[in-house]
Structures
1.
Amino acid sequence: MAFTNEQLQRYSRHIILKEVGAKGQKKLLNAKVLIIGAGGLGAPAAMYLGAAGVGTIGIADADEVDLSNLQRQIIHSTPDVGKAKVQSAKETLNAMNPDVEVKTYRQFVAADNILELIRDYDFVLDATDNFPAKFLINDACVIAGKPFSHAGIIRFQGQLMTYVPGQGPCYRCVFKEPPPPEAVPTCKQAGVIGAMGGIIGSLQALEAVKYILGVGDLLTGSLLTFNALKMEFRKVRLPKWDGKCAVCGEHPSITAPVDYAQQACEGVNLGNNA
Amino acid sequence: MKLTVAGESKDFKDGLTVAELLVEQKVDTPQFVTVSVNDNFVDKENFDSTVLKEGDVVEFMFFMGGGA
């Protein structure tokens, strides 16, 4: 596949980088990245991946654009309020870069659709806003042998880590199981500063791009945390893979994706936080 | 004794346990924090019985669920 003149111009700042070049740009154009969640993290991630010329971008989200989203979800605009988020995101990406094929999935991820959803993609971004989805995505990616970037944001803080099969711990190695509902605040309850999604979502996009290009060091085996009030990034080294994890361990007890929402609502002792 | 906690080297009293360190560091909801000492996870049920030693490197990992 040869570049058109327009593509040579569009991607000139990439092609000039020795880590990308014409070869790397072709890899990007042939790559498929799935973004689960078209919100605070997913919006900037999708825009940078689209602008970068990632050839196929899948976006999964069942929600509609709400006025309260627009403080941070910059892929959506005021006239999009009420529209399906996946549709609004697709329109923005199509206007941005005609090289990108945007596939939309107007659904929330669940145990019965996640493996099918991630199957055709090279890399997955967890840009969701709840723990059941985060554990579901982790487990499905481990089971399917799929690399993915996990991230979370709240208030003035954000963090992310990358899982690549065989290269360090997964999300469940670190966090074991979802906290009981309401034990840990959500963005809706606690708030989040708008640019946080931009910072952490852009870092997720960068991890996907680096994975596709095969350059640099990924956040495998470490958790990058960012505190915006202190303006401090910190790379927390995670313990080495110890084989004990319920999903990626040597004797996994989780061998298929699990829907956590119901389980977590049933009979969990809220302990001190109740 | 000196410990490195979340990247910072500080003095603590001898015999401090992981559970006591979480209180001392004013960690919110300590029952939901993941702790590693010298690159090994400490199981939550062992927070009380894990006594820290001079030079230990302790990291906390916090749940962060937001994203939308």
2.
Amino acid sequence: MTPGQLLLFAMGGLANAAYLFIVAAGLSLVFGALRVINMAHGSLYMVAAFVTVVIANQVGAGLGFWAGLLVAVAVTGAIGGVVEVLVLRRVYGREHLVQLLGTYAVSLVVAGAVRIVFGANYRTVASPIPGHLNLGGYSYASYSLFMIAAAIVIAAGVWAMLYRTNLGRNIRAAVADPDLLNATGVNVTRLYTTVFVIGAGLAGLGGSIVAPSQAIGSSIDTDVLVLAFAISVIGGLGSIIGSAVGSLIVGMVISFGLVIPATNPFALAFVFIIMTAVLTVRPRGLFGLPEN
Amino acid sequence: MLKVEGLNVRYGKSHVVFDFTVEVGDGELLAVLGRNGAGKTTTIRGIVGLLAGASGKVSVGGRDMSAWPAHRRTREGLAYVPSGARCFQNLTVDENLEIAAHANGADHSWTKKRIWELFPKLEPLKNNLAGGLSGGERQMLAVGRALMGNPRVMLLDEPTEGLAPVLVQSIGTLLGTLKSTGVSILLAEQNHQMALRVADRAAFIEKGRVVEVLPAARARDSEVLHRILGV
């Protein structure tokens, strides 16, 4: 493998890691604060991807994409708020199986609604940032570089929200002791809704950003959910740094796994081999905290 | 200031606190004494509003809080210092105090500066994580966090638990200081000697029921302590 090829595949891995991080960060944030594994996270991602594609194709690529992104994030945030109030408030504090079944039921409802509203056909949208850049003799889609930059900005934004705002301080306190936070004067019920809306918004952001880079169909919810879970298990559920590192590992493994002929058929399997290894050696993931 | 009428707490089918009724006046300290498992912690958590199975009337300054969730009771002046010196261990000392200050509105009579004056040992540790503090330091932080809410009533659950004798004495002195500022205090304690040294009255509970309420001077009587607490 030449250095140019190495760079090419690494950039592919980074682009994979970028959208996966945005999705996994939302999943991880919700688990960290609410201790709920959201099986409907991939559904929100799918809804956002469809909303973005439909609006972008109606309005026209370019401006249409950005309008679609804003609407998609607002829609998924709103769905998240409704799901939190109607479903999650009934399963907080109960065993994970009940929470899994509750959010799985939501994912089935959303998947059905998506098929009814958007149909079962795959859809595509033109890239809002067309063109290519040449690096080391290889051509890179400008949009892939945008995805990487967007993920870095979102990672910095999530970090700043958690460590530089009152909301983030309250979220971190809720992770440690929600009862005490309640008795300190913070409305934890409202905080949980806010966190879930942010998590849903991140799923939506991931779905919107990925839309111009791949065909959007009604199975992308499970595809991304499986990878986001793998990332969260590897990095540690509840850890944003873990999500970033997990996304990098998974993104790179998929990228290099697919291009090397000998490993091509097993590229995804390597992700789960790593996940199994992490679960065996360090069950809470590379950066995960032990559950209270 | 604090009035609790007919507080009952149930965990499912188990009835654990029965008709707890007390009044604590401005600047008064009522000690709630009882053996381990008598229901002291459950009673306090019921007053704070943290238990779904609690019923009865809780009011502060004549304002009925019974239907309010815990965070609203805290914002209206009811502060809770839980047992075990509980703090947000993944937050710094500074953040632990800020969280209460920010949550509790416009009254800023208690500031971090006043907390540092009250607990000088805490200020150099303000950027340390609360989880790395000693038991005594965490207890100071727990009290400081409650004060940052500018409370009119403080509910303390075994604040001397696990502390060295010298720190127990400091907590007693601190409670005396807080009383003098007009704060009403309800103190659940196993350490009856410390509690009765600073209390004005004592309510003794057994198996979730108040069996006797006495002035502290009378409650210090060894015959009373032997009869009710078995010490």
